[in-house]
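ok, trying the design again with the full structure, not the truncated one.
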C-alpha cells in the first residue's frame, strides 16, 4: 500500500461509523470505517478509491480530495498532508542529501535573542545551530559546538527517543514524543525522496519501540506554538511557551524559541540557568 493508502487507512480506522453518520449493521471486524463506506461518504466509486490508495491514480481533482477530507473529518494539517500525498511528485531514486547549513541570517537572529532559548532545526530535526540559552536549556550535557560539525550534530528526534537525559527533561514526554513524530510526518511528505529521511526513520524504528508505534499511527501536525513543561537538572521545573518560526525558503528549516511569562518562577529559573552555568 502507498503512503497515501496507509494514511487514508489510518484515518478510517480512527473514525467510527457513528461519528461518520453511517448506519452499521451486523458484526464488524474493525471499529473504523470500511473502504466502501468511505467511498460512499465521499461520493466516489469503490474502484476509484482503491486505485487512488494503490497509487494507480495520481490526478485526483480538488473536489475529490476535499470530499475525502470532509468524510474523514480531517483537520487543517491533515488536509494539507492529504493534498501533498494525493499529488506526489514524479517518483525519483532516493537521493543522499548534502549536509544542511544554517542560514547565516537565522543563526545571527538566534544569538541576537540573548536569553531567549532558541535552536535552528533542519528539515529532519538536526540541530543546525543554537544560542547559549537554547543549549543550556535543551542539551547542556552535550558539546556546545556540536551543531557546527555536521558529522556530530545532535538530532532532536534521536535525543528525544534515545537519550535518557533528554527523556527525563520533558515532564510530558509522551505528548512531546507524539508531537515530534507528527511534525516529522508532516515535513517528510515534502522530502519523500531524501535518503536521509529513510535512514533516520529506519534507525529510530529499530532502536525505539515508542517511535515505531507513533510512526505507524500516521498522525500529522504542523507544529507552530504551544507550551512545554521541563524538569531541568540544574534549575528544576519550568513551564515555557514556544513558537516555531518556519523560514520562508520552504526548505524545512525553522527556529524553535522558548519564553517564560513575565515575573514567573520559570522566568527566574531561566535567569538562574544563564548565570549559574
Amino acid at each position: 500500500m502507498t503512503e497515501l493508502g496507509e494514511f487514508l487507512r489510518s484515518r478510517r480506522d480512527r473514525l467510527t461509523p457513528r461519528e461518520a453518520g453511517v448506519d452499521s449493521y451486523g458484526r464488524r471486524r474493525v471499529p473504523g470505517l470500511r473502504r466502501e463506506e468511505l467511498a460512499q461518504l465521499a461520493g466516489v466509486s469503490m474502484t476509484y478509491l482503491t486505485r487512488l490508495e494503490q497509487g494507480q491514480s495520481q490526478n485526483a481533482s480538488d473536489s475529490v480530495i476535499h470530499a475525502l477530507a470532509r468524510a474523514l473529518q480531517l483537520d487543517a494539517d491533515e488536509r494539507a498532508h492529504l493534498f501533498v500525498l494525493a499529488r506526489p511528485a514524479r517518483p525519483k531514486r532516493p537521493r543522499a542529501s548534502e549536509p544542511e547549513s544554517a542560514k547565516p541570517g537565522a543563526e545571527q537572529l538566534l544569538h541576537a535573542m540573548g536569553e531567549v532559548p532558541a535552536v535552528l532545526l533542519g528539515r529532519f530535526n538536526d540541530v543546525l545551530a543554537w544560542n547559549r540559552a537554547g543549549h543550556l536549556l535543551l542539551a547542556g550535557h552535550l558539546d556546545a559546538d556540536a551543531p557546527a560539525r555536521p558529522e556530530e550534530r545532535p538530532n532532536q528526534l534521536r535525543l528525544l527517543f534515545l537519550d535518557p537525559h533528554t527523556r527525563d527533561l520533558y515532564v510530558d514526554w509522551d505528548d512531546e514524543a507524539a508531537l515530534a513524530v507528527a511534525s516529522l510526518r508532516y515535513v517528510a511528505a515534502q522530502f519523500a525522496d531524501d535518503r536521509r529521511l529513510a535512514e533516520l526513520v529506519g534507525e529510530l524504528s529499530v532502536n525505539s519501540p515508542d517511535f515505531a508505534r507513533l510512526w505507524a499511527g500516521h498522525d500529522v501536525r504542523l507544529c507552530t506554538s504551544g507550551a512545554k513543561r521541563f524538569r531541568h537538572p540544574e534549575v528544576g521545573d519550568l513551564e515555557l511557551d514556544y513558537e516555531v518560526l518556519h523560514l520562508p525558503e520552504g526548505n524545512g528549516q525553522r527556529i524553535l524559541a522558548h519564553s517564560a511569562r513575565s515575573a514567573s518562577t520559570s522566568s527566574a529559573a531561566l535567569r538562574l540557568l544563564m548565570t549559574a552555568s
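Keeping the full-length input from now on. Residues 58 and 90 are 10 Å apart (CA to CA).
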